[in-house]
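Today's session is about reading a structure prediction critically. Students often jump straight to the picture, but the first step is always the sequence itself: look for stretches that repeat, for charged clusters, for runs of hydrophobic residues. Only then move on to the predicted structure, which in these notes is written as discrete structure tokens rather than atom positions. Here is the chain we will use throughout the hour.
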Amino acid sequence: MSLLSGLNEKQREAAAHDKGPILVIAGAGTGKTRVLTHRIANLIETGKAKPWEILAITFTNKAANEMKERIGQLIDYSIDKMWIGTFHSICVRILRRDIDRLGYDKNFVIYDSDDQKTLLRDCIKEVNLDKKKYNVNVIKSIISNEKNKRNTPDKFISENYGNFQLRNTGEVFSLYEKKLKSANALDFDDLIIKTLKLLEVDEEILHLYQERFKYILVDEYQDTNNVQYNLVKILGIKKTGESNVFVVGDEDQSIYGWRGADINNILDFEKDFKKAKTIKLEKNYRSTNVILNAANGVIKNNCQRKGKNLYTDFEGGNLIRLFETDNEKAEAFTVAALMRKEGRENNISYSDMAILYRTNAQSRALEEGLIREGIPYKIVGGLKFYGRREIKDIMAYLMLVFNQKDDISFKRIINVPKRKIGQKTIDTIYEYAISNNISMFDACYDVKELGITPSATRSVQNFISIMEMLMIKKDVMSLSEFIQEVYEDTGYKSMLSEDVTIEGRSRVENIDEFLSAAMDFEERYEENSIEDFLSHTSLLADVDKTDESQQDSVTLMTVHSAKGLEYDTVFLTGLEEGIFPIIHQDEEDDIEEERRLFYVAVTRAKRMLYITYANERMRFGNHEVKSRSRFLREVPEECFESSDSETFANKKLETIEKNNSTNRRKSYKNNNLFKGVMNYEEKQEPKPKLKSDKLNTGDKIMHKAWGIGTIVQMTGEGDDRMAVIAFDNKGIKNVLISYAPIEKI
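Below is the predicted structure for this chain, in token form.
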């Protein structure tokens, strides 16, 4: 049987291509990895190339390893000498052999992000600049952008000479480059840039690699930036004009423009590689016709594309279900209820479900909804909301204001933001506190007796003054107002405002979402003191630590993180203007990339796609009225279960509530968990009492099914008495005491 016999016609045409450049436009789920691996195996099997004469470039180590494994299964030849790897790993191999031709030693070191920041701090100090005004993350981002545009420090300084701050940034850039060279070090950008420079300035080396690599294959070509594109071009086009470059990509999945990817690299492939052949893979093996029709209907509105139409042999499929919800809390409840429904009616495991959102900040409400419903989950591409550094920092301030004996919180934020309180000073405070059997906070009142420097003494005294003022304010301000005060008075807001990178903006959005959570807490609970809020959020954070080892858990992630993945059932949330699409300048290029992002999101679903949006959403501390995303209007109406999404959503929500209410009554009779968040108001018949009927907050209990837990909240009276219990291995559960199989221990 032929090696290529299992491929469809277009896949086989691409994999069997002999010589000359070729562009394979591979739509979502059309088997691009299968084509790549079969092409490589076929080249070796037919004797067109030896394993070491093939260069295959991917974007992740995972993809590279998967490619090697698949090729190894297809042929008997050893692939150990085959060059398959990421752009960075391939470039390291080249530089290790010949970087001395650029004036570096071959034993160069590679600086990671933290190393870069450390070096940049030294440069800022040496140039005698104020580190508060010259943020390390911002400068690091600027340098990376300039390097990838192949701009030198001198050129950057010349172009920005009239801007005092940018000119100084250029001086830091210049010193940074000198120090890298002096240390015989390269950062990650340098790995590709120096390789490209080596090939440009040394014809002998260029000829060596052009002759060695008879065939070059590049995966995810739509994600290449300018430097990567030029590297492929210089290696792939010989002086004779001959080129055997094989690139696979999908312009409709180009979603990384914000980090330098240039969609024109794939759109203009035929211009750069003369006589290139183009093959389109349009047969999808992942999704239903309904899902593909929805994706096609939206993406056709983009202008920056080659044009293709995904299809499948699998006829029909479930219609997309569109849910309108009142707010983000209702959205989270709807998603959680529908997940239970999918599991109950269709036997879909949680691991086959995913929740996608446009921004990380959206995960907060969704996480809380899953926690309330007891649904296990994991976060991909980011920390869980209450585990993010900025949230933990603000929480530490709140906890220290509330309890000055909390040494853990004290150590976390004593020097955040930076206050010139070094680790030596912190260690001294700790030793004094231990020897005098007091808290580290109380030890600061004796700061003059600690023997630290006058500067450190003043810094500690200033910190104590800030905290004392916050202790006073907490008793006269509302919860959300007080958190805002903590955010500002501690200098945390100023620190974040100096970071204009994407990561910095994301951290600000997360703090804003935290403020929204506080406002939401105030609205939902009469008892909404700092103590109550800390108990609430701390429990959520504790639950984040549970079920990590569970295989059957829902996956939460941004759409960017979902690229390349697939799930049976996908919940696409937050389809509102300003959320998805999220547009800063409303330029057409921005809209097109957002539309491509929507296309990626939709095509992650194999069988079932749910889409939700909210009429109102708490953002940046305010209730914002939202409107449906423009992308929903672009999805063909026949793809939705009903053209009237509002009526459909209301009916479905009514059904869900009715089912949950019925199941809840049944669960009480069967000694099971109280499901959902609805109030239990029905009068119940007398039932057997708990043996130990005097339960209080803080008591340890034993549940027959869930094991040991701690009661963290009590509500109701008599037979309606409810307990919120944090179990060691099962997370938070809400139980009706008179029916739950629990005993006090």
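Discussion point for the tutorial: The chain has 29 helices and 21 strands.
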